[in-house]
Each structure stands twice: as C-alpha cells, then as structure tokens.
C-alpha cells in the first residue's frame, strides 16, 4: 500500500499536458470488441482503470498491444469467452460497459456486479432496460446473465440521462437490425468520443452531441484509428489546485468547448482563466471572492447532465470554495454519499455546514491545517490532495489507489509544478 505525504503552503507554478479523457477511453476500449479487425486508440491515459479494462479484454480472448505510453492496438478477432472475470469486474465501475459490446458480439454476456467508487447507490436499471428494449433478456442470480437471439432497433426512452447506459445502448444498437432512437440520452464529451469512434468503425449515428441519438444498424463494423479527447475533469481539478494554492498554471491540449460549463462555476468563485488555442492559463492573480447572485443572494454551484456542471467536480469545487472569500452553496444532486468527505475538511479547519447528504454551505476563506486523510473515491481523493496542498503543515493521504484510478502519474506531475508531495510505501 502507498500513501501521499504532502507539505502544504507551496503555490504551484508551471505547465502540464492534459491527459486523455478517462471516461472516453473506457467505453472506447470496450467498443473495440465490436469488430474482428484491429482498433488503434491514441491518448489513452495510463491509469489503473484503463489497465483493468485491457486485462478484461485479454481475459475475453482479445490481443492487446502497447504501442507507446498512451497508444494501444486491440485485435478482437477471436473471443474465447463471454464471461467477465469477477475479480476484474469488481475493481472498476466501467466493467459494466462490456454488457453492450460483448452482448452485441457474442449474443450473451455474463457480468458480475461492477465495483468502483463508493459514493452512494448507483443503479444499473437503465442499462438493462435499454438492452431489454433492444431484444435482450436479463437474468439476475448473483450476477447478470444477458442474452439476445437477435438485437432489433427500437425507440428507447432512458429513465435517466445515464452516461454508461447511453454508451451500452449505443454499442448494442450500432449492429442491431433496423433503426434505434435513444431519447433522453447523455451527451457528455466522452459519449461524443464513443460516437465518433463508432462512426469511424462504420456505424451510422445521427444527433451526436444532443440528447436524441438515431442509430441505423449495420451488419458489421470494421477497424479504426481514433484519438481520445482531453480530460476536462482533470483540467478542472488542476484549475482548482492552482487557485486554492494561490499559484498559476498552463494546461496544454485543452478543448475550449468542454470548458464552458466549468467556466461559469469557477467564475462564481472569482476564478478566471484565458484560453489561447488549446492552452488554458490560470494567472497568478485571482479575485478569489464569491460573486453573489442578483440582489445579494448566496450563489449555488450545482451539477446536472451535460451541458451542465459535471457532478465529478463538485468535490473539487467544495475544497476550492474554502479558500474563497464569501459563502456558496454546493449542491450535488446525484449521489447521496459523495459529500460525506467534508467532515475531513472540517477537521482541517474548513467552515462548512453539511445541510443534508446532497448540500453543503461553504464559507471562506479558511486556514486549513494538515491532517491524516483517507481517499474515499477518485474525485474526493483529488479534492483532499488540493486541500492538503493548500493547508499549513503536513498531511498524509491513504487509499491513494482510488486517486490513481483517475489521475495519471499524479505525484510526478505535481512535483513538476513545485508541489511538495511524495508517494511512500506503508
């Protein structure tokens, strides 16, 4: 096991390259099973989650070749089993993405319950409702046995804008007979990446980027070469880190359109950036003061389906708000356990009132003090890293595996920015 040891109080400064979008890489890796031909994926982040996905591919019989640090070749000519290994499935939430691709390829998939972050109840109903609409049958006996003699296009209305359920429905629908319409579909940049990759494989998809996707099924797909887009969650995390430590940063490889919902939220905290081409710059001088709503009302930072503010960044914004003058309400609507990490921030000296499992009122600025912390999930873990770097004194963070599932070479990259952080074995 490893811990992070962090000495706080040192502003970051420097330039880093944005990683590939984790949430785009995972479905694209699963989608490589939809063809017997080779698929080459570029800009895959070197993180725990993608590593597990490649191991699952190999367990299913696919050949996986590492071309470079972030470039991989997948050849799924021969699939030898339709059963996802239980030990790998429980490691990551994204194992659920093999439901659509293996079902479409083999007509049957055996999927143990997926693992992942413990941030509250994460229902799987939408996945199976969508696949059932396409002609699948789902049996649950300690695991999910999904079969389909034939996938047939249909008009689907998802009961929630689930990203991964949309992706599973897409992977099944692209090779189904006839036309499929997915209403109330998720439209995040990572869903768009999957759509674009599938189109490159010969799929016919209309409405990419909207909440209504129309898929014209084709008999088979072919190989392709695709580059994953930048991880706007990681970019937002580093913006928050620069602001909270009163530092500055330049992030290259940014896609400006991905940053628009984030910009609105950061502006509410008096944090601004400039984008020149694909380089985002957070200057040293920031207002760091809450901008009240009209009439002097306390503003709210709340998440919603894309193009709203992404729920994965509410943890980051909570920490950043502790270093900003004024009061703001953080409203995380999706997961009832995600905000429980704020008790650790309160122990560090933050002025936060947890109103209920979804809402926290943050008043700042607060002087934070180093503490012994445990990462509960990917984003809260990164939030704790930011808090420790903004705090006075030394902090330790345990369970860093959770953080490293989503952030590539985090310690080395933070050290390059001047952070006093070490990864130590315990």
Notes on the structure:
The chain is α+β, with helices and mostly antiparallel strands and 426 residues long. The protein contains 14 helices and 23 strands. It has helices spanning 22-31, 48-60, 86-89, 98-106, 125-133, 163-173, 189-200, 232-244, 260-268, 314-321, 342-347, 378-390, 401-404, 410-416; strands spanning 2-7, 15-17, 38-42, 63-68, 71-75, 108-111, 137-140, 144-147, 155-157, 179-183, 204-206, 212-216, 224-227, 249-252, 274-276, 279-282, 300-302, 326-331, 351-356, 359-364, 372-374, 394-398, 420-425. The strands form 6 sheets. A 4-stranded mixed beta sheet has the order 21-22-1-23, covered by helices on one side. A hairpin with a 2-residue loop joins strand 4 (63-68) and strand 5. Helix 4 runs parallel beside helix 6 (163-173), helix 6 runs parallel beside helix 7 (189-200) and helix 10 runs parallel beside helix 12. It is globular. The relative contact order is 0.15. Mean pLDDT is 94; it is low at 117-121.
